[in-house]
Amino acid sequence: MSEPYTPPPSPPPQPETNAPGGQASIGMDANLASMICYLTMICCGLGIVISLVFFLIEKTSRLLRFHAMQALLYGGVWVVLGIVFRILSMVADIAIGDSLGIFVFFGWLAVRLLVAVVLLVFLIIAAIKAYQGQYYKLPILGNIAWNIVNK
User: Fold this and answer.
1) Report field, pTM of the whole predicted structure over 0.85
2) Which residues have CB under 8 Å from 85's CB, separation 6+?
3) Are residues 24 and 35 in contact, defined by beta-carbon separation less than 8 angstroms?
4) Are 67 and 100 contacting, i.e. CB atoms less than 8 angstroms apart?
5) Do 57 and 47 contact (CB within 8 A), yes or no?
6) Ordered DSSP codes for the chain
7) Number of Cβ atoms within 10 Å of the Cβ of 19
8) Nearest alpha-carbon partner for 64 in 134, 141, 140, 138
9) Residue 86 CA: distances (Å) to CA of 5, 81, 82, 104, 113
10) I need a labelling partner for 24 at 20 to 30 A (CA). Which of 38, 87, 109, 121 fits?
11) Is the dihedral of CA 112, 113, 114, 116 positive or negative?
């Protein structure tokens, strides 16, 4: 004789996360994924790719979508500034020539380092605020990202 049918046990409940941003639909804590968007900006184009992927596949967490879009815009600014500095240094080399070339080189180097330090400071602040689950808006980019996410 066969035994009466008993349904299989229900799956164990999902562990509740204590993350400030809650759980994202991608399976990570939203605040951790938001921080990853910023910290990967240091690795060439990896941050742009990760931010784009998180923005496109995330459907539930506004925190992650906001920080992914803001990081994507931030990476775009970083790329544009790199191109602008490259063009300006080439123009300065052509215009000034070899006579003052070394002074122009060190002048541009100082300006580029200053801009890089400012961008890096904003990057670290944004990563920390994202990990804390806060909607930290970078100057100018924050409002653009906010408007895109909240359409």
Assistant:
1) no
2) 108, 111, 112, 115
3) no
4) no
5) no
6) -PPPP-PPPPPPPPPPP--TT-B-TTSSBHHHHHHHHHHGGGSTTHHHHHHHHHHHH--S-HHHHHHHHHHHHHHHHHHHHHHHHHHHHHHHHHHHTTSSHHHHHHHHHHHHHHHHHHHHHHHHHHHHHHHTT--PPPTTHHHHHHHHHT-
7) 18
8) 134
9) 73, 8, 6, 13, 13
10) 121
11) positive
Q: How far is CA 37 from CA 16, 33, 65, 82, 108, in A?
A: 23, 6, 10, 20, 29
| Residues whose CB is less than 8 angstroms from the CB of residue 36 and which lie 6 or more positions away in sequence, other chains included | 50, 54
Residue 123 identity (one-letter amino acid): L
Residue type, 12: P
pLDDT tens-digit map of 35-63:
999 999 988 789 999 999 999 999 889 99
Structure tokens at 71: 């990081």
